[in-house]
Design a protein that fits this description.
It is a single chain. By secondary structure, this protein is an all-alpha fold. The protein has a domain of 58 residues. Helix content is 69%, strand content 2%. It contains 12 helices and 2 strands, in the order αβααααααααβααα. It has a two-stranded antiparallel ribbon. Helix 2 runs antiparallel to helix 4, helix 4 packs across helix 7 and helix 7 runs antiparallel to helix 9. It is elongated.
């Protein structure tokens, strides 16, 4: 069973690359979708996601050991000592940016901002506090919060890459002031991204139960889909959120003793 993310516009080189990669990884891996579930993330998407996560934390922990050795020196033995941590850190960073760039190509179209996202932001207080039990019916494959984090990481990767090159080359190439500014920007970007990752982990586990399995197994329950991403659910199934919600309520009532 296969699915595609929403596309807009004519076919492009990005779409062709993405489709080819999806078919290649899907033939090598496996995604099982049971009755009452929908395919959310194919093998290719999951491989990219966990590759991004792996190299982000490798870069983060090796960076902590380098920039704050008095506090995080216990990280450095994991990488073979302080000197090896310094050598490996930029390579971890490059790998993180590389895999995220592939993920950005994969998710470029569904991450574009829409009017529905602006309405989601205006309604964010009710969504966060739980006053609204269901996401707005026009919430697509990703909601506005997920899109904001995605573009924050895009910006962070650009900052990482530029400042990382400056720090890698050193003051002899770019001058002491440029290197000093790059240190600050590099660290601030890392902290902002780390904060976003904590929010991401919370929402994918406690905040929105069932989300984590979408990146493990690749499938989600239909109830999860119509609760959190109703426009995507309707696109895939042809049924609207309220209809599914009312049917679930009636079934739940009929099953009570």
């Amino acid at each position: 069973m296969a699915t595609s993310l929403p596309r807009t516009g004519a076919s492009s080189a990005i779409d062709r690359f993405d489709d080819k990669a999806r078919h290649t990884f899907e033939s090598a891996g496996k995604t099982t979708v049971y009755r009452g579930e929908l395919l959310r993330h194919p093998v290719y998407t999951r491989v990219l996601h966990w590759s991004v996560a792996l190299f982000f934390f490798l870069a983060l922990f090796s960076g902590f050991g380098i920039y704050l050795p008095w506090l995080f020196r216990w990280f450095t033995p994991i990488f073979g000592g302080g000197q090896l941590s310094r050598i490996m850190h930029p390579y971890f960073g490059v790998a993180f940016v590389f895999f995220f760039a592939l993920q950005a190509l994969n998710w470029l179209q569904p991450m574009l901002w829409t009017d529905a996202d602006s309405r989601w932001i205006r309604n964010i207080k009710k969504i966060v506090t739980g006053e609204e039990k269901l996401e707005p019916p026009d919430t697509g494959f990703f909601n506005a919060g997920q899109k904001l984090q995605f573009w924050e990481i895009v910006g962070g990767c650009i900052v990482y890459l530029i400042t990382g090159i400056v720090l890698w080359a050193g003051a002899k190439t770019f001058g002491r002031i440029t290197v000093a500014v790059s240190y600050v920007l590099h660290d601030i970007s890392a902290l902002i991204m780390l904060g976003g990752i904590f929010v991401h982990i919370y929402l994918s586990t406690i905040g929105e139960p069932g989300t984590f399995q979408s990146m493990i197994r690749g499938a989600v329950s239909e109830a999860w889909a119509w609760t959190f991403h109703p426009a995507w659910y309707k696109q895939v199934t042809g049924r609207d959120q309220q209809q599914a919600y009312e049917e679930a309520r009636r079934q739940s009532s009929s099953n009570k003793p």
